[in-house]
Amino acid sequence: MKKSAFSLLMGLFVVMSSFAQESFMRKFENEGQQWPLTLASKGDFYYYTEYIHNKSDSIYGTKVYLIDLFGQLIKESFMAGELSYLFPMNIDGEMYLFGTEGCTDTSLYYVRKHIRNDLTVEGVVRLEIGSGWKMEWAGFPPTLNHDGSISTAIVFGDSVLAGVYSYYDASDYICINPQFDSLWYYSIFTDSSRIQLPRFHIKGNGKRYIYGSTTPFSTSTAELIGFDSGMGIFKHYKFDGEEHQYITEPSGMVQDNEGNIFISGTLKHSLDHAKESVRHIYLAKYNADLEFISDWTMHNSADTVSFAAFRRSLVINDKGELIIGGQLSGQYFFGEKAMVISKLDSDLNELWTYYIKIGENMTIWSQTINTAIDDGCVITAKANYYRNKEEFSLVYKIPNQPITTSIEDEYLKISPILISPNPGRGQMRIDLGPQLGACQLELFDLGAKLMIQTEVQGTGNIINTSALPAGTYVYKISNSAGWSESGKWVKE
Predict the structure, then answer these.
(1) What 3-state class would DSSP assign to 228?
(2) Which of 44, 85, 196, 438 has the greatest CB tally within 10 Å of its CB?
(3) Is 22 helix (H, G, I), strand (E, B) or coil?
């Protein structure tokens, strides 16, 4: 069957647990390139947007999907525009789309569109940002500040080499007042700071906070800048591995009700870019004056690599709880593909963790972490197959549950445990979410003979399997609360 442009190919809703109505997975496929933007909830629905780029048909714009709590598609709508990056946001129970609209060589506008459940749009407001500028980047979600204003960052440039940005002329931070009738913008190149790719902009307590990187590349240095009410810099962190930690790929900044600032990114423990085994998803907490309070590192060991989700890896809910996520790889994940998502309290104590295993022959990039109606989260990701390069996006819901049975389909398996590598040889590694507590591992051969029995807890449990003959084994992991999960592990 031939696919039509921007057709939704199929929907997946497969659950294998007692919380079936609280979890879902869904696949979206369109012709051309598609980049997940973000997702927001209103009542019994989720609004999800993607940027569509179909060069062959010269079609560009934002596609909006309305999804119910079961993951079923209700309606979709396409909003054309070469620079139409629209992000849904719930404000006082009403859903709006915020973002840019225009073309690279004509006037550029920042827009607000009130959108209804039937995806009709009304009350459109456009504020002109500039005319004759070439916008290079507007791909990060805007921030809803505590005073009701919207802030974001727009990047302008003058050259592109082989699709890779080579230099930016200006980086403007934009803030629109709550009435959405006037905007304020500030170019970072008017002072000594040189952030070329600003990603996040927050206004609060009479201050402004900018978080970004020196270049768009993964080896770039993250920077965090605090401005006072007169736009003077009162704090400037350059995370280059010298005076402060070495952080790349800044991918999240939020502020809680007490004014504290949280940032996320990818922490590198070495300035040697060839050492891929020393990267971890990283979260740090600062007070309103940007004085450091505490930090947290996901899988803090030398044998794993974790990368923060690209477009937004960090969100905060009304309770001040944080959800952060990204991808895993490294020595014990060689040949394995997994994503990871964790929930923490405001003091950065880990509450729960889930692991998301990816199907065979697939590559996947976590794009955004989004809060869900039940204080769980919804994750968007971009994926394709190695062989035929079929490209699609995935949206999957993680429930806010302390302990859960796995859910899976042909694309993903979501579980509170991760066993790797599988197949393996002399060792197997077991990572458990903190919600499971102390667990018991039992490993049986296919004749039901118990081969290994030991206690496991937390991450980085290494089990010596060198004495076992090659073959297929069945593992069972259980705890005193009555939870258990079983599966197969193969020794080569």
Answers:
(1) coil
(2) 85
(3) helix
